[in-house]
Write a structure and sequence with these properties.
single chain, Rossmann fold, binds nicotinamide-adenine-dinucleotide
Length: about 450
């Protein structure tokens, strides 16, 4: 049997070496030892770092993307995603001849599907990219291969892929199909790919075994074996948990507003209870995961899902409340300076961003009275009809500060820069630290 040569991270070099030496893969029987090549379909935030990491372990990796522009950029050794260390790893993988780019999937021992799963009309999951990827890889499949879905998907998608493949390649013996959800945090993707615990679930015990063994090639966290449908629901539950709990904090902020109470103080004091941990309110949740994935759960069992759609409705209500509060000021002739457009602090990601949605709606209602500051952008994004100013230039102007994103550069503004301003601080970045209990009662 051919032995797989595993390069340690440090032997691959680069700043990524700080992740330290890798755990040696644990081989179970002959199968994982035979994994020498992987085809990764979809080279975005999940697929590209995964492909580069696999190549850094000495595996032959075929990267497949339907976008010719993405393939060309990557072939030139440049990363099209802003993610720490990925470009360095990509360059080395290309130089070592371990990473090649393709429009059509080449044969491999393992196929990883990491393509988008957006929401369609009526909050229905759109599985077109996933099914296209499965159709595209079918001609390259060989008996005994492992097909691993990583895209966030509704329960039952892995089984649907297996059925599709069986229909397209009925002559094949066994093909193992499994689900391995990804839970990386943008900005820390490479580190989290290695360090996070993972869940891997096959449609059969053998598919599960192979998926677990595959992840153990590069994951230092625990790899938890389960079945495919459970793994699908685990991923969706994680993001629905975040959404529901942030919605609770936002609902508290709306209630506190009615009573003219400081919700941040309320939450901080409630969290002094040993079994309470309320999350932070804000202008709403964003990003392509938390604002999207809960719908995948609700869509599959609409009659059973009551809290999840309610949380989504609270999110919409909180966005609307922030918009109305700022709009009332504009209606009285006040300029509003929107601080931040990204969906969360210190990232440039505008996807599903409540900050961008609120700023854009405000500017549309009150032309000429709204300006925006987003340090990660050079020009206003599509849909925002308002000038984009530097923070310094914006602070030269009179007007209310509407804090929509908790970028550190905003939180560090000196008190003098804020003096005499009206501030709507949806993120609580300017609030004073909690007053010790004794003083609170004084
Ligand atoms: N980005 C994250 O932090 C994150 C975290 C966890 C899970 N996920 C999930 O992972 C999946 C991928 O997300 P992403 O952020 O990497 O997406 P992305 O948009 O960054 O990249 C997807 C890539 O797939 C390509 N593509 C589309 N259809 C294809 C096809 N049929 N064959 C080959 N390539 C195709 C696109 O051109 C694109 O380059 C989604 O289901 C997402 O919800 C993402």
């Amino acid at each position: 049997m051919a032995r797989l040569r595993i390069m340690s991270v440090s032997s691959f070099g680069g700043s990524f070496a700080r992740l330290g030496p890798m755990r040696k893969p644990r081989f179970h029987g002959k199968l994982p030892g035979m994994t020498t090549s992987v085809t990764v379909l979809g080279l975005g935030y999940v697929g590209l770092p995964t492909a580069a990491l696999l190549a850094s372990r000495g595996l032959r990796v075929h990267g497949v993307d339907t976008s010719a522009a993405v393939r060309a950029t990557l072939a030139a050794g440049r990363s099209h995603i802003a993610e720490a260390d990925v470009e360095a790893l990509l360059e080395r993988a290309l130089r070592a001849g371990l990473f090649t780019l393709h429009a059509e999937p080449p044969p491999a021992d393992v196929f990883v599907i990491a393509v988008p799963t957006p929401l369609g009309p009526g909050h229905a999951p759109m599985l077109g990219h996933v099914l296209d990827a499965a159709r595209a890889l079918a001609p390259a499949l060989r008996s005994g291969d492992l097909v691993l879905l990583e895209s966030t998907s509704p329960i039952g998608t892995t089984a649907r892929i297996a059925e599709l493949l069986r229909g397209l390649r009925p002559e094949l013996g066994e093909v193992h199909v499994a689900y391995g959800p990804e839970r990386v945090l943008p900005g820390r993707i490479l580190a989290e790919l290695v360090e996070n615990d993972r869940v891997a679930g096959g449609l059969t015990p053998e598919a599960t075994r192979r998926a677990v063994a595959f992840y153990r090639l590069f994951v230092r966290g625990e790899v938890h074996a389960t079945d495919a449908a459970t793994a699908e629901m685990v991923k969706l539950s994680e993001n629905a948990f975040r959404d529901v709990n942030i919605a609770f904090a936002n609902e508290l902020s709306l209630i506190a507003g009615r009573h003219e109470l400081d919700v941040w103080r309320v939450i901080e004091l409630a969290n002094r209870h040993p079994r309470v941990n309320i999350l932070k309110p804000g202008p709403g949740v964003g990003g392509h995961c938390i604002a999207v994935d809960p719908w995948f759960l609700a869509h599959g069992a609409p009659e059973a899902a009551r809290l999840i759609p309610a949380a989504r409705a609270v999110d919409a209500a909180k966005r609307a409340a922030v918009l109305e509060q700022a709009s009332a000021l504009c209606a009285a002739g006040e300029r509003v300076i929107c601080l931040g457009l990204a969906f969360k602090g210190d990232v440039d990601d505008l996807r599903e961003s409540p900050a961008l949605a609120i700023a854009a709606a405000l500017a549309q209602r009150h032309p000429g009275l709204v300006v925006a500051v987003e340090p990660h952008l050079d020009a206003p994004p599509a849909g925002l009809e308002a000038p984009l100013l530097s923070l310094d230039a914006a602070l030269e102007l009179p007007g209310t500060l509407l804090v929509l994103t908790d970028h550190r550069v905003f939180a560090r503004l000196p008190p003098a820069a804020l003096a005499g301003r009206r501030i709507i601080d949806t993120r609580g970045i300017f609030r004073r630290p909690i007053v010790p209990h004794r003083e609170e009662n004084a």
